[in-house]
Amino acid sequence: MFLKSFRGAIALFCVSLLLTVGITACSGASVKSAKVDTSSAVVNLPSAPSPGKALEDIMQRGEVKIAVPDDFPPFGSIGADMSVRGYDVDVASQVAQAMGVKLDLVPVIGNYRIPFLQTNRVDMVISSLGKNKDREKIISFSIPYAPFYSGIYGGDALTVKSYADLQGKTLGVAQGSLEDLELAKNLTEGNVQNVTVKRFANNSLTASALISGQVELIATGNVVANKLMRDNPDQRIKNQFVMKNSPCYVGLRKGDTNLQAKVNEILRNMRQDGELDKLAKQWFGEPLGDLPTA
């Protein structure tokens, strides 16, 4: 029985990886990927909770396991005291507090957010997770809890107004990110040739690649780019064009409808009482703004 469950978990892991990065494999762009540490991707897989029983299981054990980023400031990064901190971390803390249970933070890099959820390493993902059709096939989502849009960024000496203008350019992106998927899709659909895409393990390395001159442009989110521009004013970085508006959602397993309803209730209360707006001002330097209702 254990072997069967283990094989099932491995199968889910592989399917999720394919759905996460499979679109990029069809890209006509040349690909240079940074090495990703997979040493802890699948270890000691927990048994799967009964379908629809996730909330009950959490309440019984008195603890919720939430995946958060540790490489994506200001959503989540390692602080001076070596603890993970950021907007997503604070939201996770508020969710656990509202549920009345202890919080077990599980730092996860972008590529493994969905696999960790599907293999029951975590109960939910609060890690700047965007929603798309491929992801909706395999996991469920909460209502939005953070504003976010993806764009192409580079020096103001460049003029890049569309995907077609990327021809002949070298572009950096975080491997497996929503920007990676969106970029690959549009380069393929638009038959845009002669684009060198360098994929890095996380957003920090992607941003560093732009500053160091390894790439001319990067595809990333507005929050990451805003911090990059504030920290490096001499680089004269600007948004070349917006790729996609993509608010952040909490990721949950399919069938966990009771947990989904509970998380939505908590997030609605946080919006109404101003807690999300307070966190947005603290971590993003701007108000929460308008978010979609679903």
UniProtKB/TrEMBL annotation:
SMART domains: PBPb
Compartmental location: Cell envelope
Gene3D superfamilies recorded: Periplasmic binding protein-like II
Signal peptide range in chain numbering: 1-25
InterPro entries: SBP_3_CS, Solute-binding_3/MltF_N
SUPFAM superfamilies registered for this protein in UniProt: Periplasmic binding protein-like II
GO CC annotations on file: cell envelope
Domain spans labelled Solute-binding protein family 3/N-terminal: 63-287
Keywords tagged on the record: Signal
CDD domains in the cross-refs: PBP2_SMa0082_like
Family designation: Belongs to the bacterial solute-binding protein 3 family.
Protein name: Transporter substrate-binding domain-containing protein
Record organism: Drouetiella hepatica Uher 2000/2452
Lineage: Bacteria, Bacillati, Cyanobacteriota, Cyanophyceae, Oculatellales
